[in-house]
Amino acid sequence: MKNETGLRAEDRPRRVDPFFWAAFICSTTVVVFIVLPLTEMILQPSFRDLWKALEDPDVIRSIGLSIYTSSLASIVSFIIGTPFAYLLARRRFHGKGFIESLIDLPIMIPHPIIGIAILSLAGRNHWLGRLMQEAGIHLMGTVTGIVTVLTFVGLPFYVNAVKAGFEAVPARLENVSRSLGASLAQTFFRVTFPLARRSMLVGLILCCARAISEFGAVIIVAYHPMIAPVMIYERFTAYGIRYSQPVAVWLIFVCLLLFLALRLVSSVREKST
Fold first, then answer.
1. Which residues belong to any copy of the ABC transmembrane type-1 domain (predicted)?
2. Rounded Cα gap, residues 103 and 162, in angstroms
3. Of 52, 144, 210, 241, which sits 20 to 30 A from 114 (CA to CA)?
């Protein structure tokens, strides 16, 4: 159909909406804002410096301890967080919204406060701290303390991811299972758990990725044994940016692998749904 100029609508030159350019500029700014500092961080150390860092047993030990403690924090989150996420997804009760807000609190508050709060509980001035010490459990300067802190900061990510996974499982499937005589536990392990397992895997990766980058709370509870973020801080303050960069680059690679795994799991989940 032709208009007054004699041109059909599809023949007229298309005018790009100004909103597109605004979105394009904002998108470019976001990508550059994130990628530029990390690219500089990765490119500045020479290959020799990176290899030298790998030959340093302290660096290997700190990165290995970061992976080990973050993995333990994910396992603890899986054990205690899965039933809790199921309860939040399937039950309605007074104060549920308040409890959900409390779960998200570690995401928002400054993490040195978390370290101070945990230490105040674990000290001799608190009855819980005295009980723990009598039982031989020490948090200050121990791997147990690091795992406790990492679980505290990573647990909200796991609970929120798994809660969303449980909510996506149709409740009628559970009702059918219960109507056929299965108990609540049998229904959970035979119906709900298998259908939500990918959300659990995503939650584990998110929890581990968040935990492996924690610094502010760990440095208060356990400066030693030294995890990778603490070692980066220690080398930066003691020797300067050049000596801290190789360790930081290897930690970035570890985090990148975790997020690649997360993307892979997410893409598989989208294809299966």
1. 63-264
2. 13
3. 241
- Mean pLDDT over all residues of the chain? 87
Cα 250 to Cα 59: distance, rounded to the nearest angstrom: 9
3-state secondary structure 186-210: HHHHHHHHHHCHHHHHHHHHHHHHH
Cβ atoms of 65 and 225 closer than 8 Å: yes
Using an 8 Å Cβ cutoff, are 166 and 191 in contact?
A: no
Which pair of structure tokens corresponds to residue 259?
A: 């997020």
- Helices 57-90 and 241-272 pack at an angle, to 10 degrees, of 40
172's tokens: 């009628």
Return the residue matching tokens 């298309």.
14
Q: How many helices (H) and strands (E) does the chain have?
A: 14, 0
What pTM does this model have? 0.84
User: Which residues face 8 on adjacent strands?
Assistant: 2
* Residue 140 CB partners (closer than 8 Å, separation 6+): 119, 122, 221, 222
